[in-house]
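Morning!

This is the sequence you dropped in the shared folder:
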Amino acid sequence: IHQATSVSDLHLHCSLNEQDGADTVLAEMLQESDHMQRMFWHGGMATEQEEVILNCLQTGLALNQSVQALHLSKFDFSANRLRFLLKNLLQSKVDLRRLTFLFCHFGPNIACLLDGLKAQQQLQHLK
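The structure's back. Tokens below.
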């Protein structure tokens, strides 16, 4: 995955295993990629797995200046821990131009999204 530095769109629908370092490898790839423009992650997994994914995205995208679009689908942000991870992700990656949530559930925790959106400096499209 470290060799995939010219990828412009990355679509993932998988879990990450902290024990084998898959989350670290992906976070490093995201940090180093200067061609990737769009990141798509399809969730629908257990809360623990979605936590690992959001942590990986936050670590990887915070230093990445090329990713302009983030698409998340089937994440359940109604869990308190995921609420804070989403907020932290959006506050650390402030240069998104497109942000899409497809079939995501926020429940009473919609404020986490609003807090994260306040940090966005270039957001043009929100779905």
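Headline: The longest helix spans residues 47-62.

More detail when I'm at my desk.
O.
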